[in-house]
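Incident review: delayed structure delivery

Summary: a single-chain prediction request sat in the queue longer than the usual turnaround. Root cause was a stuck worker, restarted by the on-call engineer. No data loss occurred. The affected request and its eventual output are reproduced below so the record is complete for anyone auditing the incident later.

Affected input:
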Amino acid sequence: QGWHVANVKTYTKYTIAFWYMPTYVKKGWSNIMHLGNSNGRRVPAVWQYPGSLRLHVRTGMSGNSNDGCDPGQKLRLRQWTHIAVTVNSNNIRVYYNGKL
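Output delivered after worker restart:
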């Protein structure tokens, strides 16, 4: 928490991939990954929805820091999932264990 890892230029194509295992359903928003240096810089960022095992993905595309997508898939409790977020022009794709 509180570590600034990197800035990603949103006009480029990129993929961010990581492993994640939720251990319980959180009541509030849970920040999983956030590479911006403030809440308004979501380039990119991934949260877990409050009271849910769904992801809230933000990429800051087209000059809008809240641009992104909300995949319908749910994560599984206490199970590792490989998540990959790919950005290509105006397309955002989120893969769970290699599946779109």
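Verification: Residues 22 and 77 are 5 Å apart (CA to CA).
Action items: add queue-age alerting; document worker restart procedure.
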